[in-house]
C-alpha cells in the first residue's frame, strides 16, 4: 500500500514501481547524493571500510534470498565465497584470464555448486540441511588448500587488478564506485526477484512447503532455484573480493565467515533485503566500533592482548540479544521507527482495511 | 461546448435551460473526447474513462434499451451502490427518451415493489446479483417490468430466467445495431426537448409512502449549475471527488453525474461503497459531497484512533486541538490562523488527514440533513473547509442556500446562490421564490399542487429565519415538540447536541405534551465496541452491550455533556438505549434508506420504551417483558 494519500493507479504498470511517493523519491535522492559524495571527503580507511561493507552486502543479500526468504538453512556460505575467489585465482594464474572471463566463470561455478548442494534440501530440513551444506564448506576449502600446496601458493594466490581498455582498477575511490554500482545492481535484482513468480514461490515454500506444493508451487524448482541463484551471487561476491584484495587465500574463508554472514541476516532481520544491507553494515563495522570504543575509553592498552576475545564475546552477546529481544532484527526496528512517524498521530492505521 | 462560466451564472442558466443531459454529454465527447469523464476501480486499478468512451457506451446502451422496447417516456428503475454503470444506464435511459429513477440500495422489498408499481417501470437495471435477488420475487405482481438487466454478472450463472439480461450484452446488441458515435448520441438527444422529464427522484419520505419528484432536463441542469455558481472553485481544473452518496439521491446525482458534466471535476468510484475510506485514501479528493453521517463517522474514527495512541502523539494532538479551538472565532471571521496554530495543524492534523486521504480537500459540501455544530467545528479545527448547504429534492438538484466559506461559522446554511431567492411564509416557513424547480410529483396531483402556493413559490415545509443575513434552519414544520408546559422545542437541536458524541449514532427526542424531554439512543456499534475493548467491559454481542451498566454510565456522561449546552427545557431528562441497530432493509423499520428516522413510526415501534421513560411502574413491567424477549 502507498505510504501517502492520492497515489491512485490507472494501469497495472504502476503497480510495479519500487519508488512511489514524492517523499520516497526525496529520501532516495538524499541517500544517493550522500553515497556518491562520500569519496570526496572520506579517508582511505573509511573507503576500505565502505568497500568491505559493499562486498558483505552482496553476500548477505545472497544468503538472505536463500535463508531469509526461501527458508533454507545454509552453512556453506564461506565455502561458496571461497569457491568464487579460487576460481578467479586459478583462472588468473593458470590461464591469465581477464575479469570478464573469471567473473562469469566464478558465477557459473557457484551456480553448479548450488545445484549440487541444494539437492539435499529436497529431502532434509533445518539442522540436517545445515550439516549437509557444511560439507560444501569443507570440500571447497580442502580442494583450495590442496591446490595452494601443490602449486606452491601457500601465502595466497595473487590476482592482478582488473583492466578495462588499458585502465587498471586500483584507486580506492574508483573501487568504491564500482562496488557501489555492484550493490545497486544486486539489490535491484533481489528486490525484483522477490516480486516475481520465483520470489513469491520462495516465500510460499518458507511458510510451509507442503501447502505451497498444494497451491501449485513446484517445491522442487523453488528450492533448487533458491540454492542456485544464492550460490551464484555468493561466488560472484567471492570473485570480486579476490580482485579487491589482490590475492586469494583459503585461510580467509574460515567457518567464522559463515557465522558472520548468518549473523548479518539474523541481526538485519530475516525476510528483508533492507535487513541484509543493515546486517552487513552492522556486522562489518562491529569490530571497528569495539576497537574505537576501547580506544576512546583508554582501555585499549590495558586489554591489548584480549581485543579478539572481547570482540568475539561481545559479538556473541549481541547475536543473543537480537535473537531474544528483536527477532525482526534491524529491519524490524527500522519498520517500527518508520511506522511511528508515518502513522503520526495514530498508533495504527485508521483505515478499516489496515487494522 | 457551452460557455459555462461561473462568473456569469444567469447566462449559463439560460443556456442550460435549453439543453438536455445526453445532449451535453454528446457535446462534451465531441469537444474534449479524450479528457477523463471519471475513473472507476476495476480489478485493482482505476480505469480512466474518457468522455468519448462514456458517450459511446451511452449511445450503445440507449440503442439496446430501445430494442428491448423502451419507448419515449417509459420509466426505467436503476438500483445499486454508486458505480459507473449507474451513470451509463442513467444517461442511456434519457438518451433513449425514457425517464430514469434510482431506488435506494438499502430499500426494503416492500419499498422496491411500491416504487416499481407506482412509477410503472418497464425495465429494472441492477448493479449486481444482490438486487436481482431483491426484485425477482416481486416480479410476479409487476407484469409491466419486462426485463431485469444486470451490470455485474458475477454469480449470475445460477439464474435461469429469460427476463434476466447482462448489461454488457445489451450494450453489445446496441452497438451492433447502429452508429454509436457522439454524433449519433447528439442526434438521439436532438429528439428530446429540454422540458422533457429526465428522471424521477423518490424522496425518502419520513412520513407515508415516498413521493416521486419529477425533474426535467433543462431545469435540472440549470438548477445544478447553481452549485457551480455558488462554489466557483469546483469549476477549476484538476478537481477530483470520490462518489460516496447513492446516485438515486439528488445530491448524489449532482456529485456523480451533473456537476462533473458541467465542470472538469473528475469523480472516482472505488471497489465498493464499504471501501469508501480506502478509496478516499487512494484518490485524495479535493472536493467532497457528503452527508452529516459520513463526517460524524470519520470524525469519531479519528477520535477513537487518537484515544488509543501513544502519550506523546496524543499530547501533540491535544495541544493542536486546544490551539485550534481557541483560534476558531478568528477562523470564522475569515482571518487566517496564526503561525503557532498553523504549525500545530501541520504537526498534528495534516498527517492525520493524510492517512485518511482527506488532506487535499478544498471544499466539503454537506447537505441532506442538519450537521451538528460540534462536528463542523471539529473539522474546521482540523483545517478542512466544511460548508453546509440546504436543498431539497424539489429544487431539482440545486441548493436553496449554501455557506460559501471558507470556514463558515456553523449554525446557518448560508445564502442563496446567484439567481435564486427565498422568503418566509406562514409560521416562518421557507419558500423558494426564484430558481429552477421540479415539475411536481409523479402521479400525485394533490401533493403536486400542495407543493406550491398560489404565487408559484415552492413550500419547503422547513422553518427558518435569517440571522446576520444567513439562513438558519430551525426544523421541519411538523416535527416541533410542544411540551406539556407549552414550550415549543426543536427536536433537531436536541438530537444534534447529543449526536455530537462519537458513541451515539442516532437520537430520537420525544416530549410532545409531556413534562420533560426524553430520548431513544442508538449506539454507534464501532466506537462503543472499541471503548468496551479498551475499558475491559465484557462483550457478549450488541444487545448485551446496550444493557451493560458501564455503557449506560458512559452514555449518561455523554448526555450530561450535551445537556450543558442546551436550554433548561430542552435538556434530556431520561433516555433509553435501543437494544438493536436500526436497519432500513428490514421491513417496517422506522428509518428510511438514507437513515433518516421516521419519527411517528419510531414511536409506534418502541412505544413501550418511550412510555417507560415517563412512568416508573410501567418501566418495571417492560423490563420484565424485555427479559423474556432477549
For this entry, give a set of tags.
heterodimer; A: 355 residues; mainly alpha; ABC transporter involved in vitamin B12 uptake, BtuC; 13 helices; globular; B: 630 residues; alpha/beta; Rossmann fold; GMP Synthetase, Chain A, domain 3; 3 domains; seven-stranded mixed sheet; disordered C terminus
Could you walk me through the main structural features you see in this protein, from its secondary elements to its overall organization?
The complex is a heterodimer of chains A (355) and B (630). With 355 residues, chain A is mostly helical. Chain A has a single domain (44-348), classed as ABC transporter involved in vitamin B12 uptake, BtuC (Orthogonal Bundle). Chain A has helices spanning 22-41, 44-69, 77-95, 99-118, 126-151, 172-195, 197-207, 209-214, 219-245, 255-268, 273-297, 307-325, 329-342, and strands at 157-158, 163-164, 167-168, 247-248. Chain A has a two-stranded antiparallel sheet. Chain A has a two-stranded antiparallel sheet with strand order 2-3. In chain A, a hairpin with a 2-residue loop joins strand 2 (163-164) and strand 3. Chain B is α/β, with parallel strands linked by helices and 630 residues long. Chain B folds into 3 domains: 9-34 and 42-226, 3-Layer(aba) Sandwich (Rossmann fold), CATH 3.40.50.12780; 227-432 and 460-474, 3-Layer(aba) Sandwich (Rossmann fold); 480-629, ANL, C-terminal domain (GMP Synthetase, Chain A, domain 3), CATH 3.30.300. In chain B, the strands form 6 sheets. A 7-stranded mixed β-sheet of chain B has the order 7-6-5-3-4-8-9, sandwiched between helices. A 4-stranded mixed β-sheet of chain B has the order 2-1-11-10, with helices on both faces. In chain B, strand 22 and strand 23 (517-523) form a beta hairpin. In chain B, helix 13 (311-326) packs across helix 15. The longest helix of chain B has 17 residues, at 51-67. Chain B is globular. Chain B starts with 8 loop residues before the first helix and ends with a helix. Mean pLDDT of chain B is 90; it is low at 621-630. Classes of the chains: A mainly alpha (355), B alpha/beta (630).
